[in-house]
Amino acid sequence: MSDSDKPRDNSKVAAIVLAAGKGKRMKSDIPKVLHEVCGRPIIWYVLDEVKRLEPGEVLLVVGHGSDAVSEEAPGVRCVTQSEQKGTGHAVMVAMEELGPEFDEIMVLPGDSPLVRSSTLESLLQARRKDGVGASVLTVEMDDPTGYGRIVRDDRGMVKRVIEEADASEDERGVTEVNASTYAFNRSLLESALSNLTDHNAQGEYYLTDIVEAMVSCGEGVIPVHGLAEEALGVNDRRQIAVVGEAIRRRINEALMMSGVTIVDPKNAYIDYGVEVGRDTVIMPMVFITGATKIGQGCMIGPCSAINESAIGDRCVVECSWLDGCEISREVNVGPFSRLRPGCKVGAGSKVGSFVEMKKAVVGTGSKIPHLSYMGDAVIGDGVNVGAGSITCNYDGEEKHSTEIDDRAFLGSDTMLIAPVRIGKDAATGAGSSIYQDVPDGNLGIERHLQKNIPDWRERKKSGQGKEKEPGSND
Ligand code: UD1
Ligand code: CA
Fold this sequence. Notes:
Blueprint: E1 13-19, E2 36-37, E3 40-41, H1 42-52, E4 57-62, H2 66-71, E5 77-80, H3 87-96, E6 104-109, H4 117-130, E7 134-140, E8 149-152, E9 158-162, H5 169-172, E10 176-185, H6 186-194, H7 209-216, E11 221-225, H8 237-257, E12 261-262, E13 268-270, E14 275-276, E15 281-282, E16 286-289, E17 293-294, E18 299-300, E19 304-307, E20 310-311, E21 316-317, E22 321-323, E23 326-327, E24 332-333, E25 338-339, E26 344-345, E27 350-353, E28 356-362, E29 367-370, E30 373-379, E31 384-385, E32 390-392, E33 402-404, E34 409-410, E35 415-417, E36 420-422, E37 427-428, E38 433-434, E39 443-444, H9 456-461
Parallel strand pairs: 1-4, 1-6, 4-5, 7-11, 12-15, 13-16, 14-17, 15-18, 16-19, 17-20, 18-21, 19-22, 20-23, 21-24, 22-25, 23-26, 24-27, 25-28, 26-28, 27-29, 28-30, 30-33, 31-34, 32-35, 33-36, 34-37, 35-38, 37-39
Antiparallel strand pairs: 2-3, 6-10, 7-10, 8-9
Bound molecules: uridine-diphosphate-N-acetylglucosamine and calcium ion.
């Protein structure tokens, strides 16, 4: 193991994540850091990267919606900043809660979910290596609007950070921005914090002013350059879309690198944490969300939404909506079907087009090919459900279950008035309303006898005969 491969000891680092702000610019009732991107709240991404550093402590500064924010940060110590007087003030509040054992402090904004732990590690290393007071993550942005700008000295060190509201015309032209992510020497941070004021355009205690304070005491502040996207913060809904696109790209790239074909990555909406096996092809306009796992060699889409489901190997899901389902291997679903929570479909079965299922368990090698509703049903192996068959599972007050045993064959348009059981190897006649159990091997048929009227068309033309036209009510 080379020196650089050795795990770093960050046990004396305390990471402070700032998440007390209201996020006024979001125009939302939900605290800003709880807005979701690819299935997780913004704050989750920040905390996940921070935890990878294995710091001795992570402190989350909460304020607006503090209970809801704390709930999304299990195992993280939360500190309440009851009045939000700025990022500098938020750090002051956190420092009061910090034990004496930490000598390095890392500060991050809770609203920038694209920062990577490797960059955070570089930030720590850069400060340690040069023995300076602080390191600051900076990035180049084509459009730096809204961000604090970095002012460097002639040696390339950071001289100060100027907030946009306080910047001159010239300073606004600077495209190197402050990612608001820092590593500090603890005692130097503490003395700079004690001198912080709120004399600025926004009347806030700016954490950014720490930089100038350190420099004026002869301490160096070293810039560490990150990827532009790492500084992307979420202040308004437009930025949620920008950040969402970047996180989606990361998720899709990781899947492609693991052997998944994504035909049009810009049109594949896959949540963080979704698992997809190799050689699976994801067609355009596919949404895969929640804790979903898809096997190998599947074809998903186009136009499908799969939520909280498990899908086995070599399945095809075409233009269908699946939620809370367990699908075994070699199953075909769709096009145009909807599988609601509680469905399980066994190996080699087929759920064809325009089929809705709810709490339906299907065995192996069964077929429900066309236009059916199967709700609260247990369907065995090798069953064939004829087109248009329906479980009448609701009597207006309660739901009842239907059992269709192995190798049963339902004629088209069978109405199964639950509770009812179709036995093994049994069959039903097309168009039957089955309200009694059909024993094993029996044919259940419920129909009126058909009457054919001879010469009906001829007699109608010539005005003879009083027989009504089939289907007419007059
Ligand atoms: C901040 C930086 C800016 C930087 C930008 C990067 C300051 C003064 N400015 O601006 O230089 O370019 O981030 O995204 O630091 N917060 C608290 N308590 C408070 C105020 C804020 O916890 O009293 C939290 C917010 O919830 C948020 C984070 O701190 O998660 C950053 O605050 P925000 O108001 O978004 O700062 P910016 O204006 O984006
Ligand atoms: Ca921000």
